[in-house]
Amino acid sequence: MHQLTLTAKDNTALAPLLTELAGTFATIENPELIRRAPVLACSLPSRLLEFLEEFRSTEPSAVCLVSGLDVDDRTLGPTPEHWRNTEAASTALPQEIFFLLCAARLGDVFGWSTQQDGRIMHDVLPIKGHEHYELGSNSLQHLSWHTEDAFHPCRGDYVALMCLKNPDLAETVVCDAGDLDWDALDVTALLEAEFTQMPDNSHLPQNTAQSTGNPVQDRLRARSFALIRSWNENPVKRPVLFGDRHDPYMALDPYHMKHDDWTKRSLNAFRDLCDQIEKNMRDVILRPGDIAFIDNFRAVHGRKSFRPRYDGSDRWLKRLNITRNIRGSRAWRPAAADRIIY
Ligand SMILES: [Fe+2]
Description:
The protein has 8 helices and 17 strands. The protein is of the alpha+beta class. Strands 1, 2, 3, 4, 6, 14, 16 and 17 form an 8-stranded mixed sheet that branches. Strands 5-15-7-13 form a 4-stranded antiparallel sheet, with no helix packed on it. A hairpin with a 6-residue loop joins strand 10 (241-242) and strand 11 (249-250). Fe (ii) ion (FE2) binds at residues 136, 146, 148, 159, 301.
């Protein structure tokens, strides 16, 4: 793993910048803050900037961990019961700003109109009633490993998680494509567009608000939900590998795949790949102040089950999606400056 620990001196040096920005911008969703993030990020410690750039440009590992950011549990207050309840002033705004600035060194952050009410910064926390549902807000059931948004052509290059609380040390799991024995797999078959990938549950209309409160956005979002419905009804076949055949990238979410009409060769190649991924899955335990940037081309990730508490002390993460090719989604965004994909 590519890892850097912030020192007490780093935290002291960062505090004035984070405090000032948290005083200027009331919410991380402020488009002006997001637009300025790449420039503001130039003020981060040069050691951190070099570390992030090495991860971005040389791909030394599928996971980049920045740990040691100051998080004060008393300032945070209780873990919300639902991500929808975090709309008011965030108690973690300085940490969210730091997270955003680091992310801005890897690419552009973006959100989905069809996920968590079109927010850019997501909350990952256990929700009552979701315990056994295949969604990041489940708990008693493990979250199956997957490529983030594997079904969508505009999926991010990175999915990033910042830990605020994890009292029972629930394990995030990650498999790095670099650990797989590609010579033992049928890479040729896996590079073919023969694999049926469906949208995941986080993009279903029942998991987001009825209305955005803006008729134009509602119309655009209805179009997105219709497209997702059509991809569920008539799933698109995609390759599960792409890039260099000797060191390939991956895009798969087996829980949301339909195997019905695959050829025997595709099915065997897919099962062998999944078996190898299972064998090479590693635990990454996130602690408060840890930020994991997961390379969404090189890694699949999931989470082991844990017992939710529902007493305000539950596991609580923030999540960002990051792309290195924001213009690749231009047809899905109403304006060049928009960072929400419709
Ligand atoms: Fe995920």
